[in-house]
Specification:
Elements lengths: L6 H10 L3 E3 L11 E3 L1 H20 L12 E3 L9 H5 L7 E6 L6 E3 L3 E6 L6 E5 L3 H14 L9 E5 L11 E2 L13 E4 L3 E3 L9 E3 L5 H6 L1 H8 L5 E10 L14 E11 L4 H18 L7 E5 L15 E6 L9 E10 L1 H10 L5 E3 L4 E3 L2 E8 H12 E3 L6 E3 L10 E5 L6 H12 L5 E3 L5 H11 L3 E5 L1 H6 L1 E6 L5 E5 L3 H9 L2
Parallel strand pairs: 3-13, 7-9, 23-24, 23-25
Antiparallel strand pairs: 1-2, 4-5, 4-10, 6-7, 6-8, 11-12, 13-14, 14-20, 15-16, 16-17, 17-20, 18-19, 21-22, 25-26, 26-27
Helix pairs in contact: 2-9
The structure holds glycyl-adenosine-5'-phosphate (GAP).
The site of glycyl-adenosine-5'-phosphate has 19 residues, from strand 14, strand 17, strand 20 and helix 9.
Length: about 500
Protein backbone atom coordinates (compact mmCIF):
# COMPACT_ATOMS: atom_id res chain seq x y z
CA UNK A 1 0.00 0.00 0.00
CA UNK A 2 1.28 3.47 -0.84
CA UNK A 3 0.34 6.20 1.61
CA UNK A 4 -2.68 8.16 0.35
CA UNK A 5 -2.20 11.21 2.55
CA UNK A 6 0.67 13.55 3.38
CA UNK A 7 2.47 14.12 6.67
CA UNK A 8 1.11 17.69 6.62
CA UNK A 9 -2.43 16.23 6.74
CA UNK A 10 -1.55 14.12 9.77
CA UNK A 11 0.36 16.87 11.61
CA UNK A 12 -2.56 19.22 11.02
CA UNK A 13 -5.09 16.73 12.43
CA UNK A 14 -2.82 16.13 15.45
CA UNK A 15 -2.78 19.87 16.15
CA UNK A 16 -6.47 20.46 15.40
CA UNK A 17 -7.72 17.59 17.55
CA UNK A 18 -5.27 17.89 20.45
CA UNK A 19 -2.98 14.93 19.88
CA UNK A 20 0.39 16.71 19.60
CA UNK A 21 1.50 20.36 19.74
CA UNK A 22 4.92 21.96 19.16
CA UNK A 23 6.57 22.58 22.56
CA UNK A 24 6.78 26.26 23.64
CA UNK A 25 4.59 27.14 20.68
CA UNK A 26 3.73 30.67 21.89
CA UNK A 27 7.48 31.47 21.90
CA UNK A 28 8.03 30.14 18.39
CA UNK A 29 8.63 26.53 19.42
CA UNK A 30 11.90 24.72 20.10
CA UNK A 31 13.24 22.35 17.49
CA UNK A 32 13.01 18.67 18.43
CA UNK A 33 10.58 19.01 21.36
CA UNK A 34 6.85 18.26 21.41
CA UNK A 35 3.94 18.37 23.84
CA UNK A 36 1.18 15.78 23.91
CA UNK A 37 -2.35 17.14 24.14
CA UNK A 38 -5.28 15.39 25.85
CA UNK A 39 -5.90 12.84 23.06
CA UNK A 40 -2.19 12.26 22.37
CA UNK A 41 -1.53 11.66 26.06
CA UNK A 42 -4.32 9.05 26.25
CA UNK A 43 -3.02 7.38 23.08
CA UNK A 44 0.59 7.28 24.29
CA UNK A 45 -0.46 6.06 27.75
CA UNK A 46 -2.53 3.31 26.16
CA UNK A 47 0.46 2.14 24.11
CA UNK A 48 2.67 2.33 27.20
CA UNK A 49 0.16 0.38 29.31
CA UNK A 50 -0.39 -2.26 26.62
CA UNK A 51 3.38 -2.83 26.41
CA UNK A 52 3.78 -2.98 30.19
CA UNK A 53 0.84 -5.36 30.51
CA UNK A 54 2.00 -7.66 27.71
CA UNK A 55 5.69 -7.63 28.71
CA UNK A 56 5.66 -7.37 32.53
CA UNK A 57 2.27 -8.34 33.98
CA UNK A 58 1.34 -10.97 31.40
CA UNK A 59 4.57 -11.76 29.53
CA UNK A 60 4.62 -14.07 26.51
CA UNK A 61 5.11 -17.81 26.61
CA UNK A 62 8.71 -18.85 26.02
CA UNK A 63 9.86 -21.59 23.61
CA UNK A 64 9.34 -24.17 26.43
CA UNK A 65 5.66 -23.22 26.81
CA UNK A 66 6.24 -21.52 30.18
CA UNK A 67 5.55 -17.78 30.67
CA UNK A 68 8.68 -15.62 30.63
CA UNK A 69 9.78 -13.91 33.82
CA UNK A 70 10.06 -10.12 33.43
CA UNK A 71 10.09 -7.50 36.20
CA UNK A 72 9.85 -3.73 35.85
CA UNK A 73 11.91 -0.89 37.27
CA UNK A 74 11.90 2.91 37.10
CA UNK A 75 15.44 4.29 37.38
CA UNK A 76 16.72 7.84 37.61
CA UNK A 77 17.26 9.91 34.47
CA UNK A 78 20.48 11.37 35.88
CA UNK A 79 23.07 8.89 37.09
CA UNK A 80 26.69 9.08 38.16
CA UNK A 81 28.55 10.33 35.04
CA UNK A 82 30.89 7.32 35.24
CA UNK A 83 27.92 5.24 34.04
CA UNK A 84 28.19 6.83 30.62
CA UNK A 85 31.94 6.33 30.45
CA UNK A 86 31.45 2.65 31.21
CA UNK A 87 28.59 2.31 28.75
CA UNK A 88 30.72 3.82 25.98
CA UNK A 89 28.43 6.81 25.46
CA UNK A 90 31.00 9.40 26.57
CA UNK A 91 33.31 9.57 23.59
CA UNK A 92 31.38 7.00 21.57
CA UNK A 93 27.83 8.32 21.14
CA UNK A 94 28.42 10.78 18.36
CA UNK A 95 27.00 11.68 14.99
CA UNK A 96 29.07 13.24 12.23
CA UNK A 97 27.73 16.67 11.34
CA UNK A 98 28.47 19.31 8.73
CA UNK A 99 27.51 22.97 8.80
CA UNK A 100 26.74 25.24 5.89
CA UNK A 101 28.71 28.46 6.40
CA UNK A 102 26.30 30.41 4.23
CA UNK A 103 22.85 29.31 5.44
CA UNK A 104 23.96 28.20 8.94
CA UNK A 105 22.02 24.94 8.36
CA UNK A 106 23.34 21.85 10.06
CA UNK A 107 23.15 18.35 8.59
CA UNK A 108 23.99 14.81 9.61
CA UNK A 109 26.95 14.04 7.30
CA UNK A 110 25.78 10.45 6.97
CA UNK A 111 22.34 11.69 5.84
CA UNK A 112 23.71 13.74 2.94
CA UNK A 113 24.28 12.31 -0.52
CA UNK A 114 26.19 13.90 -3.32
CA UNK A 115 25.39 13.68 -7.00
CA UNK A 116 28.22 14.29 -9.47
CA UNK A 117 29.24 14.08 -13.06
CA UNK A 118 30.36 10.46 -13.73
CA UNK A 119 33.83 11.62 -14.81
CA UNK A 120 34.32 13.01 -11.30
CA UNK A 121 34.96 16.55 -12.55
CA UNK A 122 33.03 19.78 -12.08
CA UNK A 123 30.72 20.74 -9.27
CA UNK A 124 28.87 18.23 -7.11
CA UNK A 125 25.46 18.78 -5.53
CA UNK A 126 24.53 17.63 -2.03
CA UNK A 127 21.01 16.56 -1.13
CA UNK A 128 19.28 15.24 1.97
CA UNK A 129 18.83 11.49 1.73
CA UNK A 130 15.17 10.49 1.46
CA UNK A 131 14.03 14.07 0.81
CA UNK A 132 12.58 14.08 -2.69
CA UNK A 133 12.54 17.87 -3.06
CA UNK A 134 16.19 18.16 -2.08
CA UNK A 135 17.19 15.37 -4.48
CA UNK A 136 15.16 16.86 -7.32
CA UNK A 137 16.89 20.22 -6.84
CA UNK A 138 20.34 18.60 -6.90
CA UNK A 139 19.51 16.70 -10.10
CA UNK A 140 18.22 19.82 -11.80
CA UNK A 141 21.34 21.81 -10.87
CA UNK A 142 23.57 18.97 -12.05
CA UNK A 143 21.73 18.84 -15.36
CA UNK A 144 21.79 22.61 -15.79
CA UNK A 145 25.35 23.49 -14.85
CA UNK A 146 27.24 20.29 -15.50
CA UNK A 147 25.35 19.56 -18.70
CA UNK A 148 24.58 16.02 -17.66
CA UNK A 149 21.41 14.14 -18.39
CA UNK A 150 20.46 13.70 -14.74
CA UNK A 151 17.93 11.03 -15.60
CA UNK A 152 20.47 9.01 -17.57
CA UNK A 153 23.55 7.22 -16.32
CA UNK A 154 26.13 9.97 -16.74
CA UNK A 155 26.26 10.72 -13.04
CA UNK A 156 27.19 9.02 -9.77
CA UNK A 157 25.90 9.40 -6.25
CA UNK A 158 27.79 8.74 -3.04
CA UNK A 159 27.46 9.49 0.65
CA UNK A 160 29.08 12.75 1.72
CA UNK A 161 31.13 10.79 4.28
CA UNK A 162 32.78 8.91 1.38
CA UNK A 163 33.92 12.08 -0.42
CA UNK A 164 37.55 13.14 0.28
CA UNK A 165 37.56 16.44 2.16
CA UNK A 166 39.81 18.13 -0.43
CA UNK A 167 36.89 17.82 -2.87
CA UNK A 168 34.47 19.65 -0.54
CA UNK A 169 35.19 23.00 -2.23
CA UNK A 170 33.39 21.64 -5.31
CA UNK A 171 30.20 20.65 -3.41
CA UNK A 172 27.09 22.83 -3.53
CA UNK A 173 25.11 22.43 -0.28
CA UNK A 174 21.42 21.38 -0.24
CA UNK A 175 20.27 24.99 0.25
CA UNK A 176 22.96 27.10 -1.44
CA UNK A 177 23.89 28.24 -4.93
CA UNK A 178 27.64 28.47 -4.45
CA UNK A 179 30.07 25.60 -3.97
CA UNK A 180 32.42 25.22 -1.01
CA UNK A 181 30.12 26.31 1.83
CA UNK A 182 29.99 22.95 3.67
CA UNK A 183 32.43 22.41 6.53
CA UNK A 184 34.30 19.13 6.99
CA UNK A 185 32.33 16.58 9.07
CA UNK A 186 32.89 16.87 12.81
CA UNK A 187 31.87 14.44 15.54
CA UNK A 188 29.06 15.84 17.66
CA UNK A 189 28.12 14.30 21.03
CA UNK A 190 24.45 13.41 21.29
CA UNK A 191 24.44 13.56 25.08
CA UNK A 192 22.81 16.50 26.83
CA UNK A 193 24.82 17.56 29.85
CA UNK A 194 23.82 19.48 32.93
CA UNK A 195 25.34 20.54 36.24
CA UNK A 196 24.41 18.91 39.53
CA UNK A 197 24.47 21.05 42.69
CA UNK A 198 25.18 24.71 43.34
CA UNK A 199 28.94 24.79 42.85
CA UNK A 200 28.87 24.15 39.10
CA UNK A 201 32.02 23.39 37.12
CA UNK A 202 33.29 20.41 35.12
CA UNK A 203 33.54 18.19 38.23
CA UNK A 204 29.78 18.42 38.74
CA UNK A 205 28.84 17.71 35.16
CA UNK A 206 26.19 15.02 34.66
CA UNK A 207 24.22 13.74 31.70
CA UNK A 208 20.57 13.23 30.84
CA UNK A 209 20.30 9.54 29.93
CA UNK A 210 20.38 8.85 26.18
CA UNK A 211 18.77 5.41 26.71
CA UNK A 212 16.79 3.81 29.53
CA UNK A 213 18.85 0.60 29.19
CA UNK A 214 21.73 1.62 31.46
CA UNK A 215 19.44 2.09 34.47
CA UNK A 216 18.53 -1.58 34.05
CA UNK A 217 22.15 -2.78 33.93
CA UNK A 218 22.95 -0.69 37.01
CA UNK A 219 20.17 -2.44 38.93
CA UNK A 220 20.87 -5.99 37.73
CA UNK A 221 22.36 -7.13 41.06
CA UNK A 222 19.66 -5.32 43.07
CA UNK A 223 16.97 -7.20 41.18
CA UNK A 224 18.78 -10.57 41.40
CA UNK A 225 19.26 -10.08 45.17
CA UNK A 226 15.70 -8.98 45.92
CA UNK A 227 13.36 -10.67 43.46
CA UNK A 228 14.39 -14.36 43.46
CA UNK A 229 14.61 -14.25 39.66
CA UNK A 230 16.49 -16.94 37.79
CA UNK A 231 18.33 -16.48 34.49
CA UNK A 232 16.83 -16.35 31.89
CA UNK A 233 14.73 -13.37 32.94
CA UNK A 234 14.10 -9.80 31.82
CA UNK A 235 14.03 -6.34 33.35
CA UNK A 236 11.77 -3.79 31.68
CA UNK A 237 11.70 -0.03 31.89
CA UNK A 238 9.70 2.74 30.22
CA UNK A 239 10.86 6.33 30.41
CA UNK A 240 12.28 9.45 28.91
CA UNK A 241 15.55 9.55 27.02
CA UNK A 242 17.32 12.61 25.65
CA UNK A 243 19.53 12.99 22.58
CA UNK A 244 20.80 16.23 21.18
CA UNK A 245 20.01 15.08 17.63
CA UNK A 246 21.81 17.04 14.91
CA UNK A 247 18.74 17.13 12.71
CA UNK A 248 15.51 16.40 14.56
CA UNK A 249 12.81 15.92 11.94
CA UNK A 250 9.73 14.20 10.65
CA UNK A 251 7.42 15.33 13.43
CA UNK A 252 8.00 13.18 16.55
CA UNK A 253 9.99 10.53 14.62
CA UNK A 254 13.38 11.97 15.59
CA UNK A 255 13.10 14.32 18.53
CA UNK A 256 15.50 15.42 21.24
CA UNK A 257 13.32 14.30 24.15
CA UNK A 258 11.42 11.04 23.67
CA UNK A 259 10.32 7.91 25.49
CA UNK A 260 11.59 4.36 25.19
CA UNK A 261 10.18 0.98 26.22
CA UNK A 262 13.13 -1.34 26.77
CA UNK A 263 13.68 -4.89 27.97
CA UNK A 264 17.08 -6.28 28.82
CA UNK A 265 16.71 -10.06 28.60
CA UNK A 266 19.48 -11.78 30.58
CA UNK A 267 20.40 -15.29 29.48
CA UNK A 268 23.25 -17.77 29.28
CA UNK A 269 25.62 -17.20 26.36
CA UNK A 270 24.79 -20.65 24.94
CA UNK A 271 21.10 -19.72 24.68
CA UNK A 272 21.52 -16.16 23.46
CA UNK A 273 21.03 -16.86 19.75
CA UNK A 274 17.80 -18.76 20.43
CA UNK A 275 16.46 -15.86 22.54
CA UNK A 276 17.55 -13.33 19.93
CA UNK A 277 15.43 -15.11 17.32
CA UNK A 278 12.54 -15.44 19.80
CA UNK A 279 12.50 -11.70 20.56
CA UNK A 280 12.76 -10.64 16.90
CA UNK A 281 9.69 -12.73 16.02
CA UNK A 282 7.73 -11.90 19.14
CA UNK A 283 8.21 -8.16 18.99
CA UNK A 284 7.20 -7.91 15.33
CA UNK A 285 4.05 -9.94 16.11
CA UNK A 286 3.31 -7.64 19.03
CA UNK A 287 3.26 -4.53 16.87
CA UNK A 288 0.81 -6.31 14.58
CA UNK A 289 -1.35 -7.24 17.55
CA UNK A 290 -1.48 -3.59 18.61
CA UNK A 291 -2.70 -2.50 15.18
CA UNK A 292 0.12 -2.11 12.67
CA UNK A 293 -0.48 -4.06 9.47
CA UNK A 294 1.94 -6.68 8.13
CA UNK A 295 2.45 -4.83 4.85
CA UNK A 296 3.67 -1.76 6.74
CA UNK A 297 6.20 -3.69 8.87
CA UNK A 298 9.50 -5.29 7.94
CA UNK A 299 12.58 -6.69 9.65
CA UNK A 300 15.97 -5.42 8.56
CA UNK A 301 19.35 -6.58 9.75
CA UNK A 302 21.89 -3.82 10.46
CA UNK A 303 24.82 -3.58 8.07
CA UNK A 304 28.14 -4.08 9.85
CA UNK A 305 28.98 -0.35 9.56
CA UNK A 306 25.79 0.80 11.38
CA UNK A 307 26.13 -1.46 14.43
CA UNK A 308 26.12 0.29 17.82
CA UNK A 309 29.28 0.09 19.93
CA UNK A 310 27.68 -2.53 22.22
CA UNK A 311 26.35 -4.90 19.53
CA UNK A 312 27.95 -8.31 19.72
CA UNK A 313 30.22 -9.03 16.79
CA UNK A 314 28.81 -11.51 14.31
CA UNK A 315 25.32 -11.35 15.87
CA UNK A 316 24.22 -7.76 15.56
CA UNK A 317 20.88 -6.03 15.52
CA UNK A 318 17.59 -6.39 13.73
CA UNK A 319 15.41 -3.34 13.26
CA UNK A 320 11.65 -3.66 13.17
CA UNK A 321 10.77 -1.03 10.62
CA UNK A 322 7.52 0.72 9.76
CA UNK A 323 6.51 2.30 6.49
CA UNK A 324 5.98 5.90 7.62
CA UNK A 325 4.50 8.32 5.03
CA UNK A 326 7.84 10.18 4.89
CA UNK A 327 9.84 6.97 4.28
CA UNK A 328 7.33 5.44 1.85
CA UNK A 329 8.09 3.37 -0.25
CA UNK A 330 10.92 2.70 2.21
CA UNK A 331 10.72 1.99 5.94
CA UNK A 332 12.03 3.68 9.11
CA UNK A 333 13.17 2.18 12.44
CA UNK A 334 10.48 1.58 15.05
CA UNK A 335 12.32 -0.80 17.38
CA UNK A 336 15.76 -2.38 17.52
CA UNK A 337 16.39 -5.90 18.80
CA UNK A 338 20.09 -6.05 19.68
CA UNK A 339 22.37 -8.83 20.82
CA UNK A 340 24.48 -6.88 23.34
CA UNK A 341 26.53 -9.86 24.50
CA UNK A 342 27.84 -9.27 28.04
CA UNK A 343 29.30 -5.89 27.05
CA UNK A 344 27.37 -3.72 29.51
CA UNK A 345 27.54 -5.89 32.63
CA UNK A 346 31.28 -6.49 32.02
CA UNK A 347 31.98 -2.80 31.51
CA UNK A 348 30.11 -1.83 34.69
CA UNK A 349 32.04 -4.51 36.57
CA UNK A 350 35.29 -3.06 35.22
CA UNK A 351 34.47 0.60 35.86
CA UNK A 352 32.76 0.21 39.27
CA UNK A 353 35.03 -2.50 40.65
CA UNK A 354 31.86 -4.28 41.88
CA UNK A 355 31.04 -7.88 40.97
CA UNK A 356 28.09 -8.05 38.62
CA UNK A 357 27.34 -11.63 37.69
CA UNK A 358 24.99 -14.54 38.30
CA UNK A 359 25.38 -17.81 40.15
CA UNK A 360 23.41 -20.75 38.81
CA UNK A 361 22.97 -23.02 41.84
CA UNK A 362 21.75 -26.00 39.85
CA UNK A 363 24.72 -26.00 37.49
CA UNK A 364 27.10 -24.63 40.11
CA UNK A 365 28.26 -22.08 37.54
CA UNK A 366 29.00 -18.37 37.96
CA UNK A 367 28.88 -16.25 34.83
CA UNK A 368 28.11 -12.83 33.35
CA UNK A 369 24.79 -13.18 31.51
CA UNK A 370 24.45 -12.21 27.88
CA UNK A 371 21.76 -9.75 26.91
CA UNK A 372 19.14 -9.56 24.18
CA UNK A 373 17.57 -6.12 24.07
CA UNK A 374 14.21 -5.33 22.43
CA UNK A 375 14.28 -1.53 22.50
CA UNK A 376 11.17 0.23 21.23
CA UNK A 377 10.31 3.90 20.92
CA UNK A 378 7.15 4.85 22.78
CA UNK A 379 7.04 8.22 21.00
CA UNK A 380 7.89 6.66 17.65
CA UNK A 381 5.36 3.87 18.28
CA UNK A 382 2.73 6.52 18.95
CA UNK A 383 3.61 8.11 15.60
CA UNK A 384 3.33 4.73 13.82
CA UNK A 385 -0.12 4.22 15.37
CA UNK A 386 -1.20 7.69 14.25
CA UNK A 387 0.09 7.05 10.70
CA UNK A 388 -1.59 3.65 10.53
CA UNK A 389 -4.90 5.02 11.82
CA UNK A 390 -5.19 8.02 9.47
CA UNK A 391 -7.87 7.00 6.95
CA UNK A 392 -9.05 9.47 4.31
CA UNK A 393 -12.74 8.87 3.52
CA UNK A 394 -15.67 10.53 1.77
CA UNK A 395 -17.68 10.91 5.00
CA UNK A 396 -18.29 14.51 6.21
CA UNK A 397 -15.12 14.63 8.35
CA UNK A 398 -13.13 13.48 5.26
CA UNK A 399 -10.94 11.41 7.56
CA UNK A 400 -11.26 9.04 10.48
CA UNK A 401 -8.65 7.59 12.82
CA UNK A 402 -8.92 3.81 12.68
CA UNK A 403 -7.21 3.00 15.99
CA UNK A 404 -7.32 -0.51 17.38
CA UNK A 405 -9.98 -0.11 20.14
CA UNK A 406 -7.42 -1.19 22.75
CA UNK A 407 -5.30 1.90 22.15
CA UNK A 408 -8.00 4.37 21.05
CA UNK A 409 -7.83 7.50 23.29
CA UNK A 410 -11.62 7.56 23.79
CA UNK A 411 -13.39 4.21 23.74
CA UNK A 412 -16.94 5.43 23.26
CA UNK A 413 -19.08 8.56 23.06
CA UNK A 414 -22.58 8.95 24.46
CA UNK A 415 -24.96 11.35 22.73
CA UNK A 416 -28.53 12.38 23.44
CA UNK A 417 -30.00 12.86 19.94
CA UNK A 418 -31.50 16.16 21.07
CA UNK A 419 -30.81 18.07 24.24
CA UNK A 420 -34.38 17.74 25.60
CA UNK A 421 -37.32 15.35 26.07
CA UNK A 422 -35.57 13.37 28.83
CA UNK A 423 -32.77 12.19 26.51
CA UNK A 424 -29.91 14.08 28.27
CA UNK A 425 -30.88 12.52 31.60
CA UNK A 426 -30.72 8.96 30.21
CA UNK A 427 -27.49 9.68 28.35
CA UNK A 428 -25.88 11.21 31.46
CA UNK A 429 -26.79 8.12 33.49
CA UNK A 430 -25.25 5.82 30.87
CA UNK A 431 -22.15 8.03 30.72
CA UNK A 432 -21.74 7.88 34.49
CA UNK A 433 -22.01 4.11 34.39
CA UNK A 434 -19.56 3.65 31.53
CA UNK A 435 -16.89 6.06 32.74
CA UNK A 436 -16.34 3.90 35.83
CA UNK A 437 -14.65 1.35 33.55
CA UNK A 438 -13.64 3.11 30.35
CA UNK A 439 -12.55 6.45 28.94
CA UNK A 440 -15.82 7.71 27.44
CA UNK A 441 -17.12 11.13 26.50
CA UNK A 442 -20.54 12.75 26.74
CA UNK A 443 -21.40 15.22 23.99
CA UNK A 444 -24.69 17.01 23.46
CA UNK A 445 -23.49 19.98 21.43
CA UNK A 446 -24.26 20.60 17.73
CA UNK A 447 -25.86 18.25 15.22
CA UNK A 448 -25.45 14.49 15.48
CA UNK A 449 -23.47 14.54 12.19
CA UNK A 450 -20.95 17.00 13.62
CA UNK A 451 -20.65 14.94 16.78
CA UNK A 452 -19.94 11.78 14.76
CA UNK A 453 -17.35 13.72 12.73
CA UNK A 454 -15.58 14.87 15.91
CA UNK A 455 -15.45 11.32 17.23
CA UNK A 456 -14.23 9.98 13.86
CA UNK A 457 -11.28 12.38 13.96
CA UNK A 458 -10.54 11.39 17.55
CA UNK A 459 -10.69 7.72 16.52
CA UNK A 460 -13.51 6.76 18.93
CA UNK A 461 -14.65 3.26 17.91
CA UNK A 462 -18.27 3.44 19.18
CA UNK A 463 -20.97 6.08 19.61
CA UNK A 464 -24.09 5.32 21.67
CA UNK A 465 -27.09 7.49 20.81
CA UNK A 466 -30.15 7.95 23.01
CA UNK A 467 -33.14 8.92 20.83
CA UNK A 468 -36.94 9.00 20.81
CA UNK A 469 -37.20 5.20 20.64
CA UNK A 470 -35.13 4.84 23.81
CA UNK A 471 -37.99 6.47 25.73
CA UNK A 472 -40.39 3.89 24.28
CA UNK A 473 -38.47 0.61 24.26
CA UNK A 474 -35.19 1.17 26.17
CA UNK A 475 -33.05 0.61 23.06
CA UNK A 476 -30.19 2.81 21.86
CA UNK A 477 -28.22 3.07 18.64
CA UNK A 478 -24.59 1.96 18.45
CA UNK A 479 -22.68 3.44 15.58
CA UNK A 480 -19.46 1.77 14.42
CA UNK A 481 -16.62 4.18 13.52
CA UNK A 482 -15.12 2.11 10.69
CA UNK A 483 -18.25 1.16 8.77
CA UNK A 484 -20.54 3.98 10.01
CA UNK A 485 -23.18 1.21 10.29
CA UNK A 486 -25.69 1.29 13.12
CA UNK A 487 -27.43 -1.34 15.23
CA UNK A 488 -29.85 -1.15 18.10
CA UNK A 489 -29.19 -2.73 21.47
CA UNK A 490 -30.91 -2.60 24.82
CA UNK A 491 -29.49 0.18 27.00
CA UNK A 492 -29.00 -2.31 29.85
CA UNK A 493 -26.54 -4.22 27.64
CA UNK A 494 -24.48 -1.18 26.61
CA UNK A 495 -21.71 -1.52 29.21
CA UNK A 496 -21.33 -5.26 28.53
CA UNK A 497 -21.38 -4.53 24.78
CA UNK A 498 -18.43 -2.13 25.14
CA UNK A 499 -16.55 -4.46 27.52
CA UNK A 500 -16.89 -7.22 24.97
CA UNK A 501 -15.64 -5.08 22.07
CA UNK A 502 -12.59 -3.95 24.04
CA UNK A 503 -11.43 -7.43 25.02
CA UNK A 504 -8.62 -8.52 22.68
N1 LIG B 1 19.15 0.90 24.24
C1 LIG B 1 19.27 0.80 22.82
C2 LIG B 1 18.84 1.98 22.11
O1 LIG B 1 18.60 3.03 22.70
P1 LIG B 1 18.33 2.89 19.73
O2 LIG B 1 18.15 2.14 18.43
O3 LIG B 1 19.29 4.01 19.75
O4 LIG B 1 18.72 1.79 20.79
C3 LIG B 1 15.84 2.50 20.41
O5 LIG B 1 16.91 3.41 20.22
C4 LIG B 1 14.55 3.11 19.92
O6 LIG B 1 14.35 4.38 20.51
C5 LIG B 1 14.52 3.36 18.41
O7 LIG B 1 14.14 2.20 17.70
C6 LIG B 1 13.46 4.45 18.30
O8 LIG B 1 12.17 3.88 18.31
C7 LIG B 1 13.66 5.23 19.59
N2 LIG B 1 14.47 6.43 19.34
C8 LIG B 1 15.81 6.53 19.26
N3 LIG B 1 16.18 7.80 19.02
C9 LIG B 1 15.05 8.52 18.94
C10 LIG B 1 14.75 9.91 18.71
N4 LIG B 1 15.71 10.79 18.56
N5 LIG B 1 13.46 10.30 18.69
C11 LIG B 1 12.45 9.41 18.88
N6 LIG B 1 12.67 8.09 19.10
C12 LIG B 1 13.94 7.65 19.13
Amino acid sequence: MTTNYSMEDLVSLCKRRGFIFPASEIYGGINGFWDYGPLGTELKNNLRDAWWHDMVHCPPMGPDGEPLSIVGIDSSIIQNPKVWEASGHVGGFNDPMVDCRETKSRYRADHLEVIANANGEGRMYAFIEGNEESEERARKLLAKYEKVDALGDEYTTSLLTDIPTDAFERIVGPDTKEAGTLTEPRQFSLMFDTTVGATGGEDNKAYLRPETAQGIFLNFMNVVDTMRVKVPFGIAQIGKAFRNEVTPRNFIFRSREFEQMEIEWFCHEDEAQQWYEFWCDYRKDWWQKIGLTTENLQMRQHDSDELAHYAKEGCGTFDIEYKFPFTDPGYGELEGVAHRGNYDLSRHTEFSGKKINYFDQQKNERYTPHVIEPSAGLSRGTLALLCEAYTPDDRPSKVFMKFNPRIAPIKAAIFPLVNKNGMPEIATKLHEEMRKKHVVQYDAKQSIGKRYARMDEAGTPYCFVIDGDTLEDNTITVRDRDTASQERINIDQAVAYLDDKLIQ
